[in-house]
């Protein structure tokens, strides 16, 4: 049926009322549809916002945990460095104590070491003068019963001069020719000497010999050869 025929049949008023009613129904249906659509979108937005909030909270928690781990790692690194420094210091002090204990053990507890006289160490130090050296000789007595022992050191300096092997009696090159190389001690003694080496002489070894006397009686002889380079120390 055409609109003109419908309008003629219903009349002017009913026709337009019918059109208005149809438009109203369409408007209401559109409004309801849009409202439901808005509700669905709002629900989706709420869900998405909740997810975003959860992700933000998780991210903050992870960042906080990461910062804590970084701090813990830094603290652990500092503690490790301090531990390494403490360990090195401990090892240094332990070595010093062991050296001191070994020295005093040789002096005060000879039953734990070998018996008799011994040259414990020889240290050679260059002085400011040309070819001049300070020689320090430490001697110990390793016996259970401590009594004064006496003797005189006979020291020979072996080496080469102008590519020729040669030996020097240390007494010949002492700075103080009147200085005696005798010893007399109960526990230990350090003998300090100053020598000037002949020009072009290259020292290689120090040979130390002595006879040991106790209560005016000879108790034995002692010989030791020491490498010059092993005893030589650079001055600070």
Structural class given helices, strands, pairing? alpha+beta
Low-confidence stretches: 109-115
Which range best describes the helical content: under 10%, 10-25%, 25-40%, 40-55%, 55-70% or over 70%? 40-55%
- Looking at the structure, what is the overall shape? rod-shaped
Mean pLDDT: 80
**How many whole angstroms does the radius of gyration measure?**
52 Å
How much of the sequence is in beta strands? 25-35%
Question: Overview of this structure, please?
Answer:
- With 236 residues, the chain is α+β, with helices and mostly antiparallel strands.
- Helices cover 46% and strands 34% of the residues.
- It has three helices and ten strands.
- α1 (3-10) crosses α2 (12-108).
- The longest helix has 97 residues, at 12-108.
- The radius of gyration is 52 Å and the shape is rod-shaped.
- 7% of the residues are buried.
């Amino acid at each position: 049926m055409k609109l003109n025929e419908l309008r003629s049949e219903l009349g002017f008023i009913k026709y337009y009322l019918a059109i208005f009613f149809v438009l109203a129904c369409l408007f209401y249906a559109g409004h309801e549809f849009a409202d439901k659509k808005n509700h669905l979108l709002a629900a989706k937005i709420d869900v998405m916002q909740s997810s975003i909030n959860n992700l933000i909270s998780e991210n903050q928690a992870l960042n906080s945990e990461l910062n804590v781990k970084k701090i813990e790692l830094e603290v652990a690194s500092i503690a490790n460095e301090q531990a390494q420094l403490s360990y090195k210091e401990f090892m240094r002090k332990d070595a010093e104590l062991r050296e001191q204990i070994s020295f005093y053990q040789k002096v005060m507890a000879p039953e734990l070491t070998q018996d008799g006289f011994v040259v414990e160490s020889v240290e050679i130090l260059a002085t400011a003068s040309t070819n001049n050296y300070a020689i320090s000789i430490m001697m110990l007595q390793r016996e259970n019963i401590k009594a004064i022992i006496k003797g005189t050191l006979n020291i020979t300096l072996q080496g080469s001069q102008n590519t020729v092997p040669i030996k020097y009696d240390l007494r010949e090159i002492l700075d103080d020719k009147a200085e005696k190389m005798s010893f007399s001690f109960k526990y230990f003694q350090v003998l300090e000497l100053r020598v000037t080496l002949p020009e072009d002489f290259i020292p290689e070894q120090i040979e130390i010999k002595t006879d040991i006397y106790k209560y005016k009686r000879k108790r034995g002889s002692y010989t030791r050869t020491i490498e010059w380079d092993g005893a030589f120390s650079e001055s600070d």
